[in-house]
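Go through this pair.

…
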Amino acid sequence: MKSRYGAILALFLIATAARGVDFEEVSFETADGGTIYANLYGEGSHAVILGHGRVFNKESWHELALAIEAKGLSVLAVDFRGYGKSKEGRRPDARHLDLLGGMRFLKNRGAEKVSLLGGSMGGGAAAQAAVDSKEGEIEKLILLAHVPVGAPKKLKGDKLFIVSEGDRLASSVKSQYQKAAKPKRLEILGGSAHAQHIFKTEQGDALTKMIVDFLEME
């Protein structure tokens, strides 16, 4: 895994350097002693944390991060523990702590509002972070074909659930949506692409617009 993502990272840095794209690689600590690396885009007072799926990494969000940043928001795309240079803490599978650590990091940098977006594995982490967060900490929560959590009734924030109609997780996403408290919204897309893979399909542009519009909405 490390050699694969090392190659992806090298290609990403070459491509972004050629295009003159600016982002800052940052790191922060988690509550269980882990160290998380992330790419930080922009300086908006509303910040969005992106949590990737199992076969992706922080670079996989680059195009979406640019689209969100273009609307005046800042973006923190994390590498979960065990990916890239990020190191796990005392709880190896507690990826939600990586996102909660990112929330604290952004608040300390002056962010007034923080939203979470996660896909598949990262969606499960974002959902658990929303369950464990304090009231008012999360502005918006976007769950893209997320791995289900045990207490969907405790999800916080203005919630957007997204899944392809043919996704293997479609039924569980619908169930989690039904159990979640308002405000909430469910969007079912055509096809069967899973989570971040949707961006590679003809639905990709529509998905990007849906996410950006939801984050901008008051």
Residues 23-216 form a domain with the Rossmann fold fold (CATH 3.40.50.1820). DSSP finds six helices and eight strands in the chain.
